[in-house]
Amino acid sequence: MAMQASSSLGIVLLLLAGFILRSSKAFPLSTPLYDTSFLNRSSFPAGFIFGTASASYQVLLKKVVEDQAYGIPTLTNIQRPLLYTKTKYDDPLIYITENGIDQLNDPKLTLEEALFDTSRVDYHFRHLYYLQKAIKDGVKVKGYFVWSLLDNFEWVSGYTVRFGINYVDYKNEQKRYPKLSAHWFKNFLKKY
User: Fold this and answer.
1) What string of DSSP letters covers 144-181?
2) Any signal peptide, and if so, which residues (predicted)?
3) Domain 11-190: which topology?
4) Residue 110 has pLDDT above 90, yes or no
5) CB environment 129-155: b (16+ within 10 A), e (fewer)
6) Is the pLDDT of residue 121 over 80?
7) pTM value?
8) Mean pLDDT of the chain
């Protein structure tokens, strides 16, 4: 765990990766998860930075809670660690420099099936929803970077998982294909 902070700039770099969100009473479940008219770039303050990440310093903030509906340990939404950071570290500027979710690299899936990554769209939509709430609660978040732009080799997992919003065909000259999440994120960014 490494944290970089500047007293003059008050910057804290965060990696909030691997969060698994379950439904929450505070989340508007009636809203279609891909509806960028509800949540989009214009929902955030002017000057807010979005992008995809390739590397960063890491601060893992995990708080395991019991999911009442399934009895499965899950992690809390992104709003809670952001509010904690605001309080604990004297209201710093925060950039979320890597945030994403992996999916099993299943060789049995067709290309079309592999590109249909609805869980990743759901993951980012929910994180951005709670990120927006944290900002409204006064947390000074200035950027959010999706992990990752492309499927890649992960040091711990090798090629057994995929993190990218773009599919990389490892068997056919590394050809790249945008996944559903890439299309969703593009639409999200267009609505400014």
Assistant:
1) EEES-SB---BTTTBTSEE--SEEEETTTTTEEEE-HH
2) 1-26
3) TIM Barrel (3.20.20)
4) yes
5) bbbbbbbeeebbbebbbbbbbbbeeee
6) yes
7) 0.69
8) 74
Spatial contact of 146 and 51, defined as CB atoms under 8 Å apart:
yes
Q: What is the mean pLDDT of residues 53-79?
A: 43
Helix (H, G, I), strand (E, B) or coil at 93: strand
Q: What's the token pair of residue 107?
A: 């060789």
108: left (phi over 0), alpha (psi -120 to 50) or beta: alpha
Burial of 110 (0-12, 13-18, 19+ CB in 10 A): exposed
Give the domain ranges of the chain: 11-190
Distances (CA, A) of 188 to 43, 121, 168, 192: 10, 11, 22, 8
**CA 48 – CA 140 distance, rounded (Å):** 10
- Sequential DSSP letters for 14-73: EE--S------TTS-TTS-TT-TTTS-GGGS-TT-EEEE-S---------EEE-TTT--E
pLDDT of amino acid 136: 95
